[in-house]
Amino acid sequence: MMTTERLGIIVMNKLKQTLIVVGIFCFTSLSLQAGEMAGEEKHIHEAESEESVNSMSEAGHDDHESEPEGRVEIPDDIAKLTGIKTRKAGPGALVRTLTSYGRLQTDPKLVSRIKARFSGRVTDISVRLGDRVESGAVLATIESNDSLQPYILRAPISGTIVQRNINVGEIASSSTIFTIAGLEKLWAELKIFPSQRKFVDIGQMVQVNIDDKDYQGKIMSLLPSLEGAPYTIARVVVDNRRGMLVPGQLVAAKVVVDADEVSIAIDNRGLQVFEEQPVVFVREGEEYEARRLELGRSDDRVTEVLAGLKKGERYVVESSYLIKADLEKSGASHAH
């Protein structure tokens, strides 16, 4: 038979177990509710974030659409630093040329071959090969064989000593002692072959290229080859006052055989292809706009513009590729 004390102990144990189960249930229920609330908050936060991103994207897209396409702003100091140069659009000439080759020669009128006036022994020489002399300068002193008196040999023209054929102590006779050549002007002697001859005449302008530098001149004379070769020699005067050229150098030349004036001609260096269209970059203040053009005829220097550019507008002629690269980079970043 169970006593009252024993019964109380059993009841207390049951009560404890019940409280433990209830506590576990309540904790589990609260945990589930907290998890559901956290999930709902996360979902709301993600939705809000997505909406915010979409709003920013739409705003950015609107901003990009409001920006003018093919236009970039470059401060004047940056443009100068990067070598961007502009030129006014205006009339120009399209030229047709033919190519010829030849060599530089001295101008025969500027060459003097000097001999002794009287035969005799050379007692002094005042110049060296390559010296620049002025007209009247002392070249040498010679003692005459007839009078045994010394006399002075002087330069008849200004120029450079290109030959010296005698030394002190030697006898000067009828042979050439010195040769002086004026090298400030040289002849470019060009070979004009029979197929080209009908297009070439005296007075035509010529662009002579020597060691990657261009010189402008015109045909001064046409004469047959002295060697009996089947070509005509066209002589073009080349300015050599800086003394950078020497006789014998090879030259390439373009003879202008025809020229047509056009209303607007642009430098070919300024032409670029942007968005598969020919453009130049027109400057307005510190902004540069890609201007689509309708082009006409072209030569190796300039191209005729039929539409898209007005006289007087300034377009980029040097370093235009930098502006094109900047616009393409900007377009690529907007696409992303």
**Radius of gyration, CA atoms, in whole angstroms:** 46 Å
CATH class of the largest domain: Mainly Beta
- What is the CA–CA distance across the termini? 88 Å
Which fold does the CATH topology of the largest domain refer to?
conserved putative lor/sdh protein from methanococcus maripaludis s2 fold
**Helix and strand composition category:** alpha+beta
Helix content class: 25-40%
Number of strands: 22
Low-confidence stretches: 1-11, 13-68
CATH architecture of the largest domain: Beta Barrel
Principal-axis shape equals: elongated
Task: Describe the 3D structure.
- The chain is an alpha+beta fold.
- The protein has three domains: 100 residues, conserved putative lor/sdh protein from methanococcus maripaludis s2 fold, CATH 2.40.420.20; 88 residues, Elongation Factor Tu (Ef-tu), domain 3, CATH 2.40.30.170; 72 residues, OB fold (Dihydrolipoamide Acetyltransferase, E2P) (Beta Barrel).
- Strands 3-12-15-14-13-16 form a six-stranded antiparallel barrel.
- The longest helix is centred in the first third of the chain and has 63 residues.
- The N terminus is likely disordered.
